[in-house]
Write a structure and sequence with these properties.
- It comes from Glomus cerebriforme.
- This protein is of the alpha+beta class.
- Helices cover 37% and strands 19% of the residues.
- It is built from 18 helices and 17 strands.
């Protein structure tokens, strides 16, 4: 039987990373003021990277004093240090690096043909750097769409934008988006933003991208026909993918009609005939966008509402069988946080979703009642009720759910005149206070709530759930 001593071998080779003896390659990376030289061993570089195996064996390398001299100005010193650590040790801790450096590592590992590292970094950005990616969508999109092998991260970015586009399309960086990426977004049926908002953002993008307009000439009242024709040329390929039939007549009159000259006549004619006569379009072929979730919440993003809808159906949010309209019944900051107002607004409304925010925490708590809230005292049976929590209004990685236990189904929901709502005496509202009880009516409830505590919420939202 062959004995395996990989750990010792790996440890000994890793020592060469900081060993100044016997190196035969000097690699200069970076440019301008950020330049650094690294010492390395060609045999290790060639063994670990197909790129170096080819590059260090060509006549294009420079040899000085029996030393191979090589330059990589497009890789920063920080990123190349990460690459060498991976090459020599087979280990890399990304938790202490900025998102920009991790993205740079993705680009460099693709160029150096280090497939294992490339796949790991791509997964890390998706799973561990979600917030940073969302805050830097334009940078990330422009980077990953230049990498053929980065389909997984490309799809992740587009799906994230489509499921919760509001912050992205209204950001200051949106007008800088590459036209091919924007074209891909507008074509998608799951781009879940209000169509009139998409139109507004497209116009802003077009103005920024049109040389004769931009910041110095974005006042439409001062435009001439040449300006309109220039904007039309910029937006010509995008206009057919605006779903004009999903824009209200009032918004069409206020937002679209002023730009009528940039829209092809046949589109304007069909849209106006649709508004005036209800005639379905014959030439316009863009299909309606698939809007499975509609919610206007101050506490959670639509992506989180999709996850909750998935919990309701006991499936993945990507596989929802129905459309969900979360119709706001009650908002504490608007209606007042107290039991009486809650009952007036929410009783006898059918299935409802409750969202609660503690004023001292970012955390969002909530519960789903598949029946209906009522003033009638009693215990109400259901196996579909659940309680949940999110770390914050954008958290999709640490959401926790607790479903009602089967042997407790007959008292999953309590009707009580003194309470606004009561989920099995585990989560309830009385007066202005939220109480977390110690009941074991729900599975693993301690992972979701801090049991036997209470607090005055800064906000409560209740939505009536309408499925289509």
């Amino acid at each position: 039987m062959t004995s395996i001593f990989h750990s010792g071998l790996s440890k000994d080779i890793s020592l060469l990373l900081n060993d100044p003896d016997d190196f035969n390659v000097i690699i200069q990376v970076g440019e301008n003021e950020d330049i650094k030289e690294f010492r390395a061993h060609s045999i290790i570089l060639r063994a670990r990277s197909p790129y170096f195996k080819s590059a260090l064996a060509t006549k294009w390398i420079t040899i000085k004093d029996n030393m191979i001299m090589y330059k990589k100005p497009n890789i920063t010193p920080t990123v190349f240090d990460m690459i060498l650590r991976y090459i020599y040790t087979g280990e890399l801790d990304l938790t202490n690096y900025l998102g920009e450096n991790i993205l740079g590592l993705l680009v460099a590992s693709d160029e150096l043909l280090i497939e294992e590292l490339f796949n790991h970094v791509q997964d890390y950005l998706i799973e561990k750097q979600t917030t940073w990616v969302q805050k830097n969508f334009v940078l990330v999109l422009h980077t990953v769409f230049e990498i053929t092998n980065c389909k997984k991260l490309q799809d992740h970015c587009l799906e994230s934008i489509c499921s919760d586009p509001q912050s992205f399309v209204t950001s200051k960086n949106f007008p800088l988006l590459d036209k091919e990426i924007l074209y891909g977004l507008l074509k998608r049926d799951d781009f879940l933003e209000e169509e009139v908002v998409i139109w507004d953002c497209l116009i802003k993008w077009g103005i920024e991208q049109t040389p004769s307009l931009g910041k110095n000439n974005n006042d439409r009242t001062k435009w001439n026909n040449t300006n309109y024709q220039a904007l039309k040329k910029t937006l010509d390929q995008f206009i057919p993918y605006i779903r004009f039939m999903e824009i209200s007549p009032a918004d069409y009159f206020d937002k679209i009609r002023p730009y009528r000259t940039i829209i092809p006549n046949h589109i304007c004619d069909e849209v106006e005939e649709f508004y005036f006569k209800g005639t379905l379009p014959k030439i316009i072929t863009a299909s309606p966008r698939i809007r499975k979730i509609k919610i206007k919440s101050n506490l959670i993003k639509p992506k989180l509402a999709s996850i909750i809808a998935g919990w309701i159906e006991r499936t993945n949010e990507k596989n929802l069988s129905r459309k969900y309209n979360f119709d706001l019944l009650y908002r504490g900051s608007r209606d007042g946080i107290n039991t009486n107002t809650f009952r007036i607004k929410c009783n006898d409304q059918g299935p409802c979703l409750i969202l609660i925010k503690n004023q001292k925490l970012e955390k969002i708590y909530g519960g789903y009642n598949p029946l209906s809230f009522t003033n009638v005292d009693g215990q109400y049976s259901t196996t579909e009720s659940f309680i949940f929590s999110f770390e914050n209004n954008e958290d999709i990685l640490n959401m926790k759910i607790s479903r009602v236990r089967l042997n407790c189904a007959n008292h999953a929901i309590y009707g009580n005149y003194s309470d606004g709502f009561n989920f099995g005496n585990v989560l309830r509202m009385s007066g202005q206070t939220i109480y977390f009880g110690g009941s074991s009516c729900f599975d693993n409830i301690g992972n979701v709530l801090n049991l036997n505590t209470s607090f005055i919420p800064v906000e409560i939202e209740v939505f009536k759930i309408i499925t289509l």
